[in-house]
Amino acid sequence: MTTNTISALERQYIVLTQGGLPVCAKPYHWVAEQLDMSVDDVLTMTIDLKARGVIRRIAAVPNHYKLGYQFNGMTTWDVCDDRALEFGKKVGDLPFVSHCYLRPRHLPQWNYNLFAMVHGRNEQEIKQYQHQINELLSEVLQTHQGPANDILTSTRILKKTGLRLTSTK
Amino acid sequence: MEFDLLSQQLINSYQRDFPLCDRPFLKLAQQFGVSEQQVLTTLKTLKKNGVLSRLGPVFNHQQAGSSTLAAVAVPANDIDRVAEIINNFEQINHNYAREHHYNLWFVVTAPTPEDLTQALTDIGDATACEVLILPMEKSHHIDLSFTVCFKPVMEQVS
What we know:
The complex is a heterodimer. By secondary structure, chain A is of the alpha+beta class. Chain A is built from 5 helices and 5 strands, in the order αααββαββαβ. Chain A folds into 2 domains: 8-51; 71-153, Lrp/AsnC effector binding domain/regulation of amino acid metabolism (RAM) domain (Alpha-Beta Plaits, 2-Layer Sandwich). In chain A, helix 2 (27-35) packs across helix 3 (39-51). The longest helix of chain A has 15 residues, at 123-137. Chain A is elongated. The two termini of chain A are 20 Å apart. Chain B is an alpha+beta fold. Chain B has 2 domains: 5-57, Orthogonal Bundle (Arc Repressor Mutant, subunit A), CATH 1.10.10; 61-136, Alpha-Beta Plaits (2-Layer Sandwich). A 4-stranded antiparallel β-sheet of chain B has the order 3-4-2-5. In chain B, a hairpin with a 5-residue loop joins strand 3 and strand 4. In chain B, helix 2 crosses helix 3 (36-48). Chains A and B meet through helix 2, helix 3, strand 1, helix 4 and strand 3 of A and helix 1, helix 2, helix 3, strand 1 and helix 4 of B. Strand 3 (97-102) of chain A pairs antiparallel with strand 6 (142-143) of chain B, so a sheet runs across the interface.
C-alpha cells in the first residue's frame, strides 16, 4: 500500500475544499484567500494533487437518488486473473457503471475479483445491466471456484457519510 | 423533477471534467454557448434542490488514509442490531444492507493501515461476526462517474 505524504498546507487545502468549492465566478480565488496563497499557487497545488492521485477529479457530485436512480446493484464477477485488468477497464467504460474495482478473492467463501456498481430506476433495469456486463465478460468468466457472477442489490442504506479529514493530524 | 438542457449538460459533463483554471464556469459557458452567469445560476439551483451534493475536488480516500470494503453475514432478523453496532464505529462511512448471504456491506476508513486492521478486528469482536475484507487492489483501480440518462426521468414526471 503506497501512501502519499501530504504537507501541512495540502492538508489545509483538503480540509477547506472537501465540502465543495463555492459556486462563484472565481472559486480558486476564494481558496487562495482562505489559505493566504496566490491563485497561481492554488492552481499549481491542485494540478499537483491531481497528478499524485490525491484528487481523483474535480467534479459535480450528483445525488443519484434525486435523479431518480433509487436502485443500485453491486455486480460481482469471477474473471480469470490475467484478463481482469483489461476487462475491468471495459466494464468501467460502460455508461451505467459508476465504480469498477478489482479486489482479492477470499476462497472458498468469496470467489469474485471484479466488482461493478450499476445504478437504475428499478430492479429490472439493474438486471438488464447485469446481463450486458455478462455478455461483455463472457469469454473471461470462470466457474471452477464457484458461480461466475452474482448481484447484490441494496435493500437499505444504513449509513452514508462522506469521508472527512480533520484539520489536526 | 424536470431538468432543462443546460442542467442536463452540466450534470453529465461535469461529473468528470471541471476545467482547471481561473474562471472554470466561464470556460463551461463558452463550451455550452451560454453566459457564465447562466451556468452559475443553474449550478446554484441544482445545488439548492439537492441534485448536486457538491462541486469540487473528489479526494482519493486511499491516498488520504487507508480504507477497505468489508462485509458480514448476519441472520436476517438480527440485521438492525448488528448494523447499529457497526455504524457506531466512526471509521464507517458507508453501510448498505444487501440481499445476499453476506448482507451487510460497509466501507472502513482509518488514518493508517494499522488503524484499519485494528478497526476491522474491533468490528469483528463487537459483532461476533467473521468479517470478509475486500480491499481495493490499488494498481487496478478504476473510478468513473456514470452518464445520467434524462429521458426516462422526464417521462416519469410528465
